[in-house]
Specification:
Blueprint (H helix, E strand, L loop, with lengths): L7 E6 L6 E9 L9 E10 L7 H8 L5 E2 H6 L5 H16 L3 H8 L2 E3 L4 E2 H9 L5 H8 L9 H16 L4
Antiparallel strand pairs: 1-2, 2-3, 3-4, 5-6
Length: 169
């Protein structure tokens, strides 16, 4: 690991800010099939006391067979600091290599199951000027069937307008 080249970087703080974790990954790129890109090395720096898990054991488990596909890392359900930092490093790798569609897919949440509308679809509709609930419904089809996602759609609209358009008011 002397010739470690970082292809992705992730950092995260514990909720009480007593622990700070920085993590770098090195990726073996598959030129033919990007989904076969694999993490070959993981390096991390830890500041503070981290009792939740043993980072060395996690690295050993993840790289048990020498490497792990980046897509498999995104499927991990563990939500401790280490795994969240690792997922951030994978997303950073995607951005660094111009794979924005993989970033979108990895961060996409389906909001309306009936019409298969994601948070990204709703945000795109808002960016195109559909800033009312009815406008988002017309543009995406969200909350037009069973209605169980109505509150979540309204929350996304409200949050997006506050964070992205707040400076314009």
């Amino acid at each position: 690991m002397n010739n470690f080249t970082a292809d992705g970087f992730g950092k995260i703080k514990s909720p009480d800010e007593s622990v700070f974790l920085q993590l770098w990954i090195s990726v073996r790129k598959d030129s033919q099939i990007p989904e076969f890109d694999a993490i070959t090395h993981i390096k991390y720096e830890l500041t503070g006391t981290y009792d939740e898990v043993n980072c060395d054991e996690i690295v050993e488990d993840i790289l048990e067979f020498g490497e792990v596909f980046v897509d498999d890392v995104l499927k991990l359900r563990k939500q401790d600091l280490f795994h969240r930092a690792l997922k951030k490093a994978v997303l950073d790798y995607f951005r660094n290599t111009g794979q924005e569609q993989r970033v979108n897919k990895a961060t996409e949440d389906i909001i309306c199951s009936c019409r298969h509308v994601s948070n990204h679809n709703i945000k795109e509709a808002i960016k195109k000027g559909h800033t009312s609930f009815e406008g988002v419904q017309m543009a995406t089809g969200a909350a037009t069937s069973c209605g169980s996602c109505e509150n979540k759609v309204k929350e996304i609209i409200s949050q997006h307008i506050k964070t992205d358009f707040g400076a314009l008011k």
